[in-house]
Amino acid sequence: MFSNFVDGRFQKNYKTYAFQSSLLFVCVGFALLLDHLFGEIIVASLGASGFILFVTPHTDGSRSKNLIGGYVCGAIGGILFGLLRTRISGFAFPGADYVMVFMSAAAAALTTFLMVTTNFVHPPAAALALGLSADPKCVKTAAAAIVSVAILCVARRILKKYLRNLI
């Protein structure tokens, strides 16, 4: 019954699965602690990035250039539309709420465009852009997110020889 829900390699490699999940806990926890001390962070995108790094460490999706480049693309899209949204939010006009919603969608779209044209593809960066576009302190938050993902990339680089692709 459980064979449909549990990876067939789990029983043989349960120590590896537990080790890499524990590394994710330590590294993401450390990055979140730094951000708690020094600023804000977009937690969902960082958690998704950590998953990619520690579950599929030997794939193109977990390469440092894709993570950091993707986060820079997300920061550009999120900050651009976040600052624009902040400027517009001072005006009261019919449909202002809808404009704000579409600003967030535009941030994700611009991020996607930047990632695919530069080959810095990292899907969680689109989530970063969504969060930044609604954050009045988007520049500070973007900097914290980029530093945090860089910390994850350094940890992956140091531990890469001990990591295996789990899926």
Q: How would you characterize the overall build of this protein?
A:
The model has no long low-confidence stretch (mean pLDDT 85). The longest helix is centred in the N-terminal third of the chain and has 29 residues, at 10-38. The protein has one domain (9-162). It starts with 9 loop residues before the first helix and ends in an 8-residue tail after the last helix. The radius of gyration is 18 Å and the shape is elongated. The protein is mostly helical. Helix content is 73%, strand content 0%. Helix 1 (10-38) runs antiparallel to helix 2 and helix 1 runs antiparallel to helix 6. The relative contact order is 0.20.
Give me the count of strands: 0
Would you tell me the structural class of the helices and strands? mainly alpha
* Largest sheet geometry: none
**Element order, helices and strands?**
HHHHHH
Low-confidence stretches: none
SSE layout and pairing:
Elements: H1 10-38, H2 43-55, H3 64-88, H4 96-118, H5 124-133, H6 138-159
Keywords:
single chain; mainly alpha; 73% helix; 167 residues
Short description:
The chain has six helices and no strands. With 167 residues, the chain is mainly alpha-helical.
